[in-house]
Structure formats: C-alpha cells, structure tokens
Amino acid sequence: MTTSRTPSPIDQIADAYVQDLAALDPFGATALGIPGYDHLVTDYSPAGHQRRVDLTRDTLANIAKTPRQDDTDDVTVAAMTERMGLEIEMFESGWVHADLNVIASPLQGIRDVFDITPTATVDNWRNIAARLAALPTSISSYIESLRYGASQGKVPALLQVTEGVKQAREIADPTTSFFVTFVSSESAQTVLAEADDSAALTAALQTAARGAAEAYGLLADYLENELAPLAPTDDAAGRERYQLSSRYFLGASIDLDETYEWGLEELARIVAEQQATAEELYGPGTTVEEAVARLDEDERYVLHGTDALKAWMQETSDQAIRELGQSHFDIPEPVLDLECMIAPTSNGGIYYTPPSDDFSRPGRMWWSVPPSVETFNTWREKTTVYHEGVPGHHLQLGQAVYLRESLNSWRRLICWVSGHGEGWALYAERLMEELGYLSDPADRLGMLDGQRMRAARVVLDIGVHLKKPCPEQWGGGTWDAEKAWHFLSANVNMPQDFIRFELNRYLGWPGQAPAYKVGQRLWEQIRSDAQTRAEAAGEQFDVKAFHARALGLGSVGLDVLKETLSH
Predict the structure, then answer these.
(1) Mean pLDDT confidence for 272-300
(2) How many angstroms separate the CA atoms of 221 and 276, rounded?
(3) Structure confidence by residue, pLDDT tens digits, 5-21
(4) Whether 516 contacts 457, CB under 8 Å
(5) Distance (Å, whole) CA 269 – CA 254
(6) Does the chain have fewer CB atoms within 10 Å around its N or its C terminus?
(7) Whether the bond into 471 is cis, omega within 30 of 0
(8) What are the C-alpha distances in Å from 212 to residues 108, 140, 171, 208, 463?
(9) 36: how many CB neighbours lie within 10 A of its CB?
C-alpha cells in the first residue's frame, strides 16, 4: 500500500513545522493526536496570532532555499507555498482578529476540543483538569483579539455576534454547561474512581469546569455589551474579502461571476433530475414535494430514536468499507475502523473527525441531533454516510494519516483544503451512484436532495456576499439575507431550525459553503481530463488507479492537485 521513502530536507522542514505549530496551538495538537499538549490551551491574542504567522514565514523562507529531491518534494513545496502564502494573506487582511461565526470560530473550538480529548485514563483527566483551569486565559486572549480587530475596523457582522452571544450563554449556564456535565459524567466518574487522589482530582475538575463556564459568561458579556454595538448590520463580505476566502477554501482561483451563473444552471439541472426520480418512484406527474412526503411516511425508511440511528449508521458504513475495500479501493487495515457516534452537541450538524496520528483514536462520524428530533429517514441520509465515511472523508483523511512512509507530517496531518476535501466527499456521493449503491430511487432522491442544497449554496453565498442581482423568481433586486432565507427554504428539504442555522453559517463564513459543490466540479473536471489523456494515448482509463494516485497525495489545493495529476 505504501512506498517507503527516506525523508528529504524538505520533509524535515515540514515535520519541524508541525511540531513547532503544536507548541503554539495546543488545541490543534490535540485534534491531530500529537501527545504532550493536552493540558495546555491555545493563545488567540494578537501576539499568539503573530507567533504563528512568524513561524509560517520562517518555514516558507526555509523551503524556498532548500533543494528538492524528487516529485514528492515538488508537491510538498507547491502545496505548502500555496497554503502558507494564503495564511499570511489572511493574517495581513486583519480578519483573523474578527474570527467569529456560528460554526467554526474559537467560540466553538475552545469547547469542541474536549470532544476529541483523550479520556480513558486518570492521567488524561489530570490533563483535562489543567486545561480547564487554564481555559479562562484562552477565552481572555480571544476577547483581546476581537477587541484589537475592532480597533482596526474589522468587526464580524451583527448576526454572527448575536448568535455567538446565545451560544456562549448556553455554555456558560452553571447547571447545564457542557463543562459541568462533562466532568460529572458517568464515564468520567468511572475513571476518576481509579485515582489515588480521586476526591481531590474530582474537586479540581469541578472547580475548573465552573471556571470555564464562567469564562464563557464573560465572553458573552463582551460580545453583547462591547462588540455588538460596533458590529455592522450588513452580512455581505464584499468582493475583495470574498475572493481571498474563496481561494483559501478551494486552493484554486475561480471566476466568481461565471461560477455564480454555473450555480444557477446546476441547480436547475438537479431539480429536473429530482423531478424525474420522483416520477420514477410514484408515477408521472408526481412532484418532488409529494415524493418526499410519501417517503417520510414510509416505515421502510424510518428509524426511531438515536440508538437505531447509530446502529444503522454503523451497519451502512461497515458494509461500504467491507465491499469497496474488496473491489474499488485499497483500504489500509487501520482505516477499516470507523466509529459512528451521536455527538454531544445538538445543533443538527453531521461531521467527521479523522483518526489520531497513531490511530489510537479512530476516525469518527458524528451526528448532532436536536432535542426535538426523534425520527430519522434513511432515504435522505444514506448518501451522508458515504459522504462522511467511505469513500468520502474517512477514506480520504484516514488514508492520508496512514501514509507516514511516503508523506511528511504536514501533508498527512495539517494540510486541509475544504474544496479538496468536501469536493471529494460530494464526488464520492456521485461515485456511489455510479457504483450502484444508490440503485433504490428513494436513496438516489436523497443524494439529489443534498446535491441540490450544495448547488443552492453556490448561488446564495456568492449572490449575498457579492451583492449580485437576484433572479425575479427569488425576489429581484439585490441579494440579501431575507431573499436568501426564502430561496434556501425552497431548495432545502430540512426542518426550519436547521435551515436557519445553515443560512447563518453561510452569512458568517464567506466562501466556505460553495467549496463543496465547486470542489466537486473541479474534481470531476480533473478526472475527465485524466480520462481524455488516457484515451488519446490509446490506453484504457483506470479509475481505481486514478483514485489511488489522487488520494495518495493527501489534501492539497485543487490547483496543485490538477497540476500534479496532469502528468
């Protein structure tokens, strides 16, 4: 599966960067499974950001003066130059000091790191106690950065601030705070009972948990009382900021106006495909809405309760791994293990966390279930299992972690490009249709349902943030949040609370949501180009070999991927 390779000087620079960055970002080190930092917290202050960008600049300078030894070095240098160059641009834009949105900012990350923190031993809980005790300093550094950004005229939009207040207040609640329930959970008490100083450690954890919750209360106060009065009501990022964000999330430069028009066309094409599938299910004249309503009432496709959901997720995932590993992919043994989990959060999201570097923590698919949701429809979600699992994120990221004999630590663990990763996952959904795993028209309608949402996001995201003209069908004039709400509600078959959260996410995270569908488009173009070259050379296109080579590169920018696979 892997080709052993002696690390080059370029690899040594990349590996050193990973270790140095771990010391500057302990939360990131925990996410990567790098030991030795689980008791520490990340500094989000302006000085903390400066130290990390200085490391990036120094690393780029070292790479530029170091000779390359082979094709692997060529890809590493291209990928690191593209990624790190963009990190510096993002820093210089000033927006790193206004990093607040509803889904992927320090507000969430400071809490979410505990979902993947090791908890199996007493020493693990000592680390957690130390980290929780230090958490107020991380929150304080984050407030310092937001305050500095505001002084420079960089303030997140009011919607993101007010939603951030709600999230922070929830975490700050002294009785229901995640931190309080986390340290008092049954699993925690079972491990703590083994400690020689069980009572003292338990007390330290409880005190630190209350302190962490109180720190979130201070964050909520700052956001509500100091930042909100400065926040603009306009959600649009503007073209300059959006172009930078788009490049960051794709690892490619695209024509935003052409992509917007393509998004409209792609949306119409998917809607027509949905209509044809609805009629395949229930006969001519059946609308998509009628087909969805009938499927939601069909007990063959309904699961009751999270236990049934978790079991179905695991069974569906295990089957895909087992069968695809025998036919279409060479799946390394450690990657055969994927755990399906019900997330401790309740915002309705579905996501994947990769394995730790040593695979002691396996790859995991998480389903965040809102309290009001008690039934689940498999016709809608089967494609999601393939997206998050195999051949989607788990195969992609798990395999990258596995390739330690051929790839350096930066390429295996650090580099993540949304357009590459999420584009591959959407490509994987269509691939499963191609391979016959969505032969049931109901499951295929579910796949199209998701694809329709992703196409709609291209239109909405570019439309709102660039203030483009809105089609008359969706209100005419210029795109704004209200028109986006009606547009999204008409094109996303999800509960209203979920749609509202999704819209808030797009409004506060410019350029990220389109990276899924645009990334899929670029993946499909890269595969089509490879097939054309093979046929022009009189060779039969080997899609399995194409996938193996592409995934063997790890996550890289899509321009780097295209260039590398073109020869």
Answers:
(1) 96
(2) 52
(3) 899 999 999 999 999 99
(4) yes
(5) 21
(6) C
(7) no
(8) 13, 11, 9, 6, 39
(9) 12
What is the rounded average pLDDT of the residues 469-478?
Answer: 96
Q: Return the residue matching tokens 């964000």.
A: 245
**In sequence order, which residues have a C-beta less than 8 Å from that of residue 238 and are 6 or more positions away?**
465, 466
- To 10 degrees, the CA torsion angle through 124, 402, 86, 422? -100
Nearest alpha-carbon partner for 171 in 114, 230, 86: 114
Distance CA 203, CA 259 (A): 56
Pairwise CA distance, residues 503 & 488, whole Å: 8
Q: Which of 232, 259, 279, 122 lies closest to 187, judged by CA?
A: 122
- Classified as helix, coil or strand, 343 is coil
Answer left, alpha or beta for residue 47, where phi above 0 means left and psi between -120 and 50 means alpha: alpha
Alpha carbons within 13 angstroms on the beta-carbon side of residue 434 total 11
Mean pLDDT, rounded, of the chain: 95
pLDDT: which is higher, 436 or 357:
436
pLDDT digits (tens, 9 = 90+) for 393-446: 999 999 888 988 889 999 988 999 999 999 999 999 999 999 999 999 999 999
Cα–Cα dist 196/218, whole Å? 35
CA distance to 81, 259, 499, 516, per residue, from 462 (Å)? 27, 9, 18, 13
Q: Please, are residues 398 and 357 in contact by the beta-carbon 8 Å criterion?
A: no
Could you tell me if 550 and 431 are in contact, meaning their C-beta atoms sit under 8 angstroms apart? no
Which 3-state string (H, E, C) describes 407-420?
Answer: CCHHHHHHCCCHHH
The pair of three-digit structure tokens given for residue 249, joined into one six-digit string: 């999330």
Contact 457, 511 (CB under 8 A): no
DSSP per-residue string spanning 400-451 = HHH-TTTS-HIIIII---HHHHHHHHHHHHHHHHHTTTT-SHHHHHHHHHHH
The answer to whether the beta carbons of residues 115 and 128 sit under 8 Å apart is: no
Is 469 in a helix, a strand, or coil? strand
Using one digit for the tens of pLDDT, what is the confidence trace for 292-315? 999 999 999 999 999 999 999 999
Tokens of 98: 């206004």
